[in-house]
Amino acid sequence: ETGVTQSPTHLIKTRGQQVTLRCSSQSGHNTVSWYQQALGQGPQFIFQYYREEENGRGNFPPRFSGLQFPNYSSELNVNALELDDSALYLCASSSGLAGAGETQYFGPGTRLLVL
Amino acid sequence: AQTVTQSQPEMSVQEAETVTLSCTYDTSESDYYLFWYKQPPSRQMILVIRQEAYKQQNATENRFSVNFQKAAKSFSLKISDSQLGDAAMYFCAYLISSGTYKYIFGTGTRLKVLA
User: Fold this and answer.
1) How far apart are the C-alpha atoms of B7 and B105, rounded to whole Å?
2) Nearest CA in chain A to B97
3) How far is B19 from chain A (nearest CA, A)?
4) Which residues contact B71 (CB under 8 A, 6 or more apart)?
5) Where are the beta strands (DSSP E) in A14-72?
6) Would you call B94 an interface residue with chain A, using a CB distance cutoff of 8 Å?
7) Could you tell me if B94 and B104 are in contact, meaning their C-beta atoms sit under 8 angstroms apart?
8) Pick from B50, B52, B104: which is nearest to A45 by CB?
9) Which terminus in chain A has less CB density within 10 A, N or C?
10) Residues 6-65 of A with CB under 8 A from B
11) Is A107 exposed, middle or buried (0-12, 13-18, 19+ CB in 10 A)?
12) With bands split at pLDDT 50, 70 and 90, how would you rate the model's confidence at A1?
């Protein structure tokens, strides 16, 4: 059973650009959540997908969008990058009904630097 | 607004001793989950322990236990027989599990274990 993987591990972009981050869920997991973790802070919930539908969202603007694919892999897209978007982006997958408090398994994260 | 507060930015404990990490939260929901996550340096976040709000019994997982005081909105983590491997950032988190789903994390407590 493979764990949660994320790609790329590190990324440097310039302000105004667009970025796509990828996450491969743990086998059998149908729910994925994305988080932004600024340096020295706790993770901030961006959104959650359950069976390819968004079913929860934090306080992030629409330029943060996502997709979940039939194989339950996932993407986080961020448009019009701002300097404050520099952070570690974490994805986490879980099985079962979304919101049922199932254990989330986190990936290692993608560290994004916006210059 | 739902918030999670961890008032101890850093804690130290002697190896083999017991330490308690504090967490308070604010919510008007009656149905929710609470979690403690551990994030070791440069390693993936992992779940330590979970508590369902409707359960009065405090959750335990080996050396880890919680003191859940629902009326006081308090959820502290006790680590017994501390080990060097317990050194990490610990995050308290809350899941709104009705309607759309949303996770809220605290700012974390850095635990140092002294040999």
Assistant:
1) 13
2) A99
3) 21
4) none
5) 19-24, 31-37, 44-50, 53-57, 64-68
6) no
7) yes
8) B104
9) N
10) 33, 35, 41-45, 48, 55-58
11) buried
12) low
Q: Alpha carbon A48 to chain centroid distance?
A: 8
In chain B, residues with a C-beta closer than 8 Å to the C-beta of A45 are 102-105
Please state, as a whole number, how many other Cβ atoms lie within 10 Å of the Cβ of residue B15. Answer: 12
A42-82 pLDDT, tens per residue? 999 999 998 899 988 999 999 999 999 988 899 999 999 99
- Smallest CA–CA distance, residue A96 to chain B, in Å, is 13
The token pair at B96 is 């709104």
The answer to whether the CB of A47 falls within 8 A of the CB of A66 is yes
CB spacing of A99 vs B106 below 8 angstroms: no
